[in-house]
Amino acid sequence: MKRRHFIKKASVSGVGIALAGTALSCKDESSEENTHEAIASTPIRASLPLVIATWNVMEATAKAWDVLQNGGNALDAVEQGCMVEEINENNQTVGKGGFPDRDGNVTLDACIMDMNGNCGSVVYLQNITHAVSVARKVMEDTPHVMLAGEGAKQFAISSGFEPEDLLTEASKKAWEKWKVESEYKPIINIENHDTIGMLAMDKNGNISGACTTSGLAYKMGGRVGDSPIIGSGLFVDNEIGACTATGLGEEVVKTVGSFLVVELMRQGRSPQQACEEAIGRIVNKPNSNYKNFQVGYIAVNKQGETGSYSIHEHFSITKYHDGKNENIKSDFYIKT
Ligand code: ASP
Questions:
Q1: pLDDT single digits (tens) 288-311
Q2: From 35, 195, 246, 318, active-site residue
Q3: Peptide bond into 49 cis (omega under 30)
Q4: 182-210, pLDDT tens digit by residue?
Q5: What pLDDT is stored for residue 31 in this prediction?
Q6: Between 271-283 and 257-266, two packed helices, what is the crossing angle to 10 degrees?
Q7: Is 95 in contact with 87 (CB distance < 8 Å)?
Q8: Rg of the chain's alpha carbons, rounded to an integer?
């Protein structure tokens, strides 16, 4: 069965799927072509362009907005937006100056996805600040989706990226303090964040996304989280919408979080409802330890509506829309 026919059947079979106000709800059910037309003509409710990102990253969203205003596409916008945080040494969860693993090595994970469903990813990348750009190169210049470790680094160098030491004095000091004071307990500190996931919609309503991180601070050597895993840390379907994640990557991977959010939007949920339901999948697992870790999602649908939700408080999104750059507090599951 073709994908769209399956979706149509799922939509009308009523397996708990809401239909109101969505791209799919207004389509003609009679043919696949009509389905595509209906999606293409989905009314865009937001003014475009639009950029949203995890956490308080106003300079990054401003950069992305600038790219879009100057005729750049959504892919350029998310790449260049994320690069702002990768080079920002004060952000110790991304790029240069990111917290190292427990052996003192800074290893980066990133991915990017365009409006045509193409994607690229790097995992366990060392010595290259702009992991998101290497991920884009993987997407555009290789027949592969994901490169890891030494291979990813060699590919980056051969593509013109300069290798450098990513461990700054500040992050080295923090790691040395952690070594003395801590037992190994890789539960993400609810305050230790700023991994950047960014989604952009250009003036034509086309969506791209990117996600970049140094991962969980003081992780085991070799540990990879959700951020470079397409479907977990990021997923874009230009007909439906996009989602990106932050927080404890293991929990996002176990529920294929970003793909789940996009699929829920496909079935009729608003971005807000989809993010809430995906968080629900994590907290409602038997014996979930959710009180001790953070996960947050942000999403946008094809109409330009946005949503966000996290387990704990202290999650915010930065949204550049209608010419305004705003850091907005997100809603969360644990109300105290
Ligand atoms: N999701 C990232 C990871 O698990 C970390 C974060 O978002 O803070 O590697």
A1: 999 999 999 999 999 999 999 999
A2: 195
A3: yes
A4: 766 655 555 556 689 999 999 999 999 99
A5: 41
A6: 130
A7: yes
A8: 19
Answer whether residue 23 is part of any domain: no
Range of the domain at 238: 50-334
- Amino acid (1-letter code) at residue 273: Q
DSSP character at residue 24: G
| Residue in this structure with the two tokens 């330890």, named with its chain if needed | 289
Strand partners of residue 236: 242
CA distances from 275 to 16, 145, 254 (A): 16, 26, 15
For residues 208 and 218, give the distance between their C-alpha atoms in angstroms, rounded to a whole number: 30
Cβ of 195 below 6 Å from ligand 1: yes
Which atom of ligand 1 is closest in space to residue 249's alpha carbon?
4
CATH number at residue 181: 3.60.20.30
Residues of the chain with pLDDT under 70: 1-42, 183-194, 336
For the chain, what is the domain count?
A: 1
**Nearest-atom index, ligand 1, CA of 224:** 9
Is the sign of the CA dihedral 230, 234, 238, 241 positive or negative? positive
Whether 212 sits among the annotated catalytic residues: the reply is no
Beta bridge partners of 245: 297
Distance CA 311, CA 257 (A): 13
Token pair in block for residue 261:
């959010």
The tokens for 174 are: 């923090």
Instruction: Note the maximum CA span of the chain.
Output: 66
